[in-house]
Specification:
Order of helices and strands: HEEEEEEEEEEEEEEEEEEEH
Distance between the termini: 189 Å
Radius of gyration: 47 Å
Shape: rod-shaped
Number of domains: 2
Helix content: 10-25%
CATH architecture of the largest domain: Sandwich
Strand content: over 45%
CATH superfamily of the largest domain: Immunoglobulins
Oligomer: single chain
Number of helices: 2
Number of strands: 19
Length: 285
């Protein structure tokens, strides 16, 4: 009897709980009977103080020279409110914008290939949509209409970089394949690119770093050769043709005349001395 009484009590409790739960669901449904619809009435400028998206470009880096025509465009977008409607970039070497599909994560990596040599600009844009609500209308059909004005606000970032895939061309302008009558020979150089290092090798000796045009000083008489090398900002290495030349320093005329004059003076002194000795000998004789 006690077990049957306990089973009946448990069954009645379950029924009561089910009834209460059903009543709560019904009440919740009745408490919020409306559907919501949003209706755009037009467009306006962004309200004062609206913060645009922030675009940060990490690659390529600004004012950097790259030795390859392929690279990754890496950037990030930070937003003040959630919805980004459009992302695109505009490279200066192309005539149109390149669209990028927005995604939930705001980090982007895009492979870019076949960029021509030269200095380029690249702009990345992010467009964000916003709304200014004007009024709400509750319709008899249990629908709330939200009327609003939309606006767009754009953030952007720009970088400048250079693609350089060609080694520099170096030319020696002042030294020719001939004989120079001086031990000091000017070295004038022409390079078709901005360089990070200039140097020359004379007669196969150690590499000598220079900042520009220079002078080869103290050259010995005989045959010489020189080659100039340049390293551009992208790290490419180029060299000039090797120039062969010679130095012939004439013997100074003053060095030849001076000993002869000395001998003449000394000879004259000896001649006077001998004549005097003879005269004294004759007198004694």
């Amino acid at each position: 009897m006690e077990k049957k009484t306990q089973l009946k009590a448990a069954f009645i409790s379950v029924l009561l709980l089910s009834a209460v739960g059903a009543t709560q669901f019904v009440n919740l449904g009745r408490a919020n009977p409306y559907t919501h619809e949003f209706r755009q009435e037009g467009e306006v400028s962004p309200p004062e103080g609206t913060i645009p998206p922030t675009v940060s470009i990490f690659s390529p880096k600004n004012d950097t020279v790259y030795a390859s025509s392929n690279f990754s465009l890496i950037f990030n977008i930070s937003v003040a409110f959630p919805y980004i409607s459009r992302i695109y970039y505009r490279p200066s070497w192309q005539s149109s914008n390149i669209e990028v599909k927005p995604k939930t994560a705001n980090n982007y990596c895009i492979n870019i290939t076949d960029v021509p040599e030269g200095t380029h600009l690249l702009n990345v844009y992010a467009v964000q949509n916003g709304r200014v609500y004007t009024r709400e209308v509750v319709a008899p059909s249990a629908t709330i209409y939200h009327y609003y004005l939309s606006f767009k606000i754009t953030g952007s970032s720009r970088i400048k970089f250079t693609i350089d895939v060609t080694p520099p061309k170096v030319s020696i302008l002042s030294i020719q394949n001939k004989t120079y009558n001086t031990p000091d020979v000017p070295l004038d150089i022409a390079v078709n690119d901005s360089v990070s290092k200039l140097s020359y090798v004379l007669d196969g000796q150690d590499n000598v770093t220079i900042s520009g045009n220079a002078t080869l000083t103290g050259l010995s008489a005989g045959e010489h050769n020189i080659t100039v090398y340049a390293t551009d900002l992208a790290g490419h290495f180029g060299g000039s043709e090797t120039i062969y030349f010679s130095v012939d320093i004439p013997f100074p005329a003053t060095l030849v005349i001076a000993p002869i004059a000395s001998v003449a003076v000394i000879g004259s002194g000896l001649l006077v001395y001998f004549r005097k000795r003879r005269k004294e000998s004759g007198e004694k004789a």
